[in-house]
Write a structure and sequence with these properties.
Its EC number is 2.7.7.65. It contains 9 helices and 9 strands. With 447 residues, it is α+β, with helices and mostly antiparallel strands.
Length: 447
């Protein structure tokens, strides 16, 4: 029985297989390390993006929660849910009574994950200086699907790059193995060493006795094709960079314009939140904020502070007689008359009820406040607004009550307000269309 001759094995093939095996192991290790790095970078980017969302919308969301602006809160929740890294948004708004309001937006396909970051932050609002209120909580959940999608894209790029490097290395090893190819490899190496973006159009040529359709020729063709691709790529990149610079400049201009618009809108919204829409005077909220500051300032500095309360006489009858449109016009006229009298920079005129107005006079004693109240009553009489349903006059009149801060009596602003309100009640009891002051000689009776 004859033995079969051993199967011939090409040393070049064995060397190529060994090289490819080494490259495969190296590719797997490099891909594993770079994949791990890409995963960490993706989580860090997601964490930074969630933190940025908190900083960008935290203050505005806290204000909307304080104002219980449900539409605005829902809008912010929708905006946050559209952020690339966000998978779910939870907003909890505390209420004075009862369970908190809950708002939730979930990206389609999102599922809870233990690997993505979750950001929780308290929503705090400062209604006025020195006081901060916790109004709710914002919770942002990362989107694991987005993280995996980015990782797959990164992994594909890693594998492609490593595979190309492995194939190139194997080709070079084969070329070095063949002595007849060494000189051409050196020629190729010199050509590549001299290659710059300026001479990419110069093709690679090797001197051979005849053209051979072999690996070397394929390598030369590949290098030339690579040069052509690089030349095209650099041209496109230069064109894209120019376009990107133009877009960046335009985007910067748009951002500046949008920022200016938002700042203007924020100032307008702040002004609207503190202003009565009908009369243009300060509203009850603005009055409540200013009164406490002025009260504390007056007590600390030992300065006088006078509060005047005004009430339109028989205003309900006026509304019934002239309609709500007439009533609104009457309120606007009264507001203008009161504002026209209290013109000092520190004076505050506010509409604090349907037909009730308040005048806060920092630095004014009782006599000054009494004079101001009397001028307001006279200014109202001068308008001569007809009032057929009034029992005291043929025209619209005001009853006014005032009180001046007395530190031994007024421990808080509510006491001062109550004394002014009692004076107003006394003015109504005494026949309306007159001024009454707590702890002061009374104003002259209207003629």
């Amino acid at each position: 029985m004859t033995e079969r001759p051993p199967r011939r094995q090409s040393l070049g093939m064995r060397l190529m297989l060994a090289t490819l095996g080494f490259c495969l192991v190296f590719t797997l290790c490099a891909a594993a390390y770079q994949t791990w790095s890409a995963w960490r970078a993706g989580k860090a980017a997601m964490d930074a993006d969630l933190a940025l969302m908190e900083r960008m919308y935290g203050s505005a969301l806290a204000k909307a929660s304080w104002d219980l602006d449900r539409d605005q809160i829902a809008t912010y929740a929708e905006i946050l849910s559209q952020a690339p890294w966000v998978g779910r948004v939870d907003i909890s708004v505390r209420l004075p009574v009862g369970p908190p309001l809950e708002y939730q937006r979930v990206r389609p396909g999102w599922t809870p994950s233990s690997v993505t970051p979750v950001h929780r932050s308290q929503l705090r609002y400062e209604p006025f200086t020195g006081r901060t209120e916790a109004v709710g909580e914002l919770r942002l959940f990362g989107d694991e699907a987005r993280l995996w999608r980015q990782l797959r894209e990164a992994l594909l790029g890693i594998v492609v790059r490593q595979a190309l490097q492995s194939l190139l290395l194997a080709s070079l090893v084969m070329a070095l193995f063949h002595r007849l190819v060494t000189v051409h490899v050196r020629r190729i190496a010199r050509h590549l060493a001299q290659l710059t973006p300026l001479n990419l159009g110069k093709p690679l040529t090797i001197e051979r006795a005849s053209r051979r359709d072999d690996e070397l020729e394929l390598l030369v063709t590949g290098v030339n094709q690579l040069q052509n691709n690089l030349s095209d790529y650099l041209e496109r990149q230069q064109r894209f960079e120019q376009e990107l610079a133009a877009h960046r400049d335009r985007l910067s201009e748009l951002v500046q314009e949008r920022t200016a618009e938002l700042e203007t809108l924020n100032r307008q919204l702040e002004q609207l939140s503190r202003t009565d829409s009908l009369t243009g005077l300060a509203n009850r909220r603005s009055f409540d904020q200013v009164k406490l500051a002025e009260f504390q300032r007056a007590r600390r500095g030992g300065q006088p502070l006078t509060l005047v309360l005004c009430d339109i006489d028989y205003f309900k009858r006026y509304n019934d007689t002239y309609g709500h449109a007439g009533g609104d016009a009457c309120l606007q006229a009264v507001a203008a008359a009161v504002q026209g009298v209290a013109q000092r920079g520190a004076d505050l005129v506010a509409r604090i009820g349907g037909e009730e107005f308040a005048i806060l006079l920092p630095g004014s004693d009782g006599a000054t406040g009494l004079a101001v109240a009397e001028r307001v009553r006279e200014a109202m009489a001068a308008l001569a607004i007809p009032h057929a349903a009034s029992e005291v006059s043929a025209y619209v009149t005001l009853s006014l009550g005032l009180a001046t801060l007395q530190t031994d009596i007024d421990a808080n602003f509510e006491t001062l307000f109550r004394r002014a309100d009692q004076a107003l009640y006394q003015a109504k009891q005494d026949g309306r269309d007159r001024v009454r002051a707590a702890d002061l000689p009374q104003a002259k009776e209207p003629s």
